[in-house]
Amino acid sequence: MRESTSPTNSECFPLSSSQLNGSRYREPTVPIHAPRKASHRPPVETMRYAFLIRIGIFIVVELGFISLGAITLINPIPLHLSPAISLPEAKGLFTFIFIIWHAIAVLAVKDVLFHIFSAEWMEKYRKTGSIVLGETDGVSRITSGIVDQLQHFCSRVATPTFRLSFICVLLVMALDGLGPSTITVNLLERPRGVSVANLTVTSNNSLAIGRANFITRVERLQKATVGFLTQNNTLIPWPSFDLISTENVIRYQSDVISYNFDCSWNQPTTNDPMTSWTIDNQDWDIYRGANSPVPLTDGLILPMEQGRVSAGNSSNPLSAFVFIGSNSTLSQNVTLNLEDTPTSFIPSNPGNNITSPVLASALVCQPRLNIAPATVTLSGVFLRASTLSGRTRVKNAPMAAANIIFSESLLLAANLESNRFGTIACTIFLDPSCQENNESNGFKPLPLGTINQQMNTITRSSAKVYLSGSTLNGSDPVSSQTNMIRVNGVEERQKMALVASEPFLIALSVVVGVLIALLIASMVVVRIDQLRTFDLENIIRTLKMD
């Protein structure tokens, strides 16, 4: 082979038939002209320095970003932005900035990698001494895709420089997606201890029952709010009231009680209908509180307490209510119509305060509760819990406390008013119109699905006195205190800051570190003076040498 010189200002070069894959064509004559403008590309002699400068730019830009990420990981950087800019807008703004940041670094090294790809055709030509159309230039064309590059990477003729560069391209693709996600805008957070209620009322307590009645009436009848608001079907032990803030959000760990009532009708039996009943083989006592027994007449809803509650802890979370009513067979003037429920007949017994025969039906409600650890978020006066599977419980909501809450919190609230079913009982079990016209006749119990929903709702109010952590002592309100435990929490301030993600920062550091090592290795391995990119001048030189 002979060395060729650059084409003259106007030179004609014939292409032979053998160079056109053996096809027989008329040999054309193509006029070739010298470039009208000087190329912006550095000459071969200084190309290594140009490549090193580009790699240096990449290193400086990416290490600068990693340093910023390390700083924001340790100490988030507060942002002094306009109050009109929301958190999503700030996130979008800085994501765009970081995309530009990484684009500068990527563009700096992409030219180096594409230059090596473009020169791979010449390395294949040097190895084989021939040009095969569609193969020799397989990875050097601008239209070559990742499949062509991967096939060449796995072939025997791929150069070490190409293989290093191909791995670099894959890492650059990972960098494009990983980099902008490493640092983002979030609200400032700082760790802090949180005092949260430890539920200790685990036995019958008349003061707690009275306070539960008061809170239930205030919230359900006066439409006011006592303490904290919570999500549906979840009981959350309360944090200390001094944590309430209109600006900051606090997250902490606590056990929470989730529930969903499932009530069912049963036929009760009794030997003494004025005091106790047996429902589904369990003994229950009529809850009287401070009231004296009332005559059993049509139109009563009597809360029941489990038979051994007064002697100790409640053994389960069930609650029960006995409905005293009638039907059209017994009376033409029915107040509480029990025609569609299983009932027991109670004959008249004037000596036992039963002036006329009535029917009795029992409603037993199972809360289907579950106690689990959760992350609780306090925002203003609203508590929201997200349960955590597989985590250790805080143990501030024992099962004994849950049994008391569900079995006793409605004993007084759902009790009688003026010897008739009360307003809260109307809300839960009967048509709402019974609140306005308690003397009307013919009320039927609501469908079980509606009763379940009403029980779910009313329990959120009746349970609040227990969720506060109050250690109530008998009937003495002065001696009551709150029992709290200390847990770890995080305070989220309503101020935006740059914050790094530790897993993303570690992954980015690994990707950048490997990229830098491979780029330097490529510069050591590559023969810069022999790089011939896939352009017309180098193609013509090669064809003339042939």
TrEMBL record:
Polar residues: compositionally biased ranges: 1-22
Keywords: Membrane, Transmembrane, Transmembrane helix
Transmembrane segments: 51-74, 94-117, 164-188, 504-526
Region feature (Disordered): 1-26
Superkingdom, taxonomy of origin: Eukaryota
Name of protein: Transmembrane protein
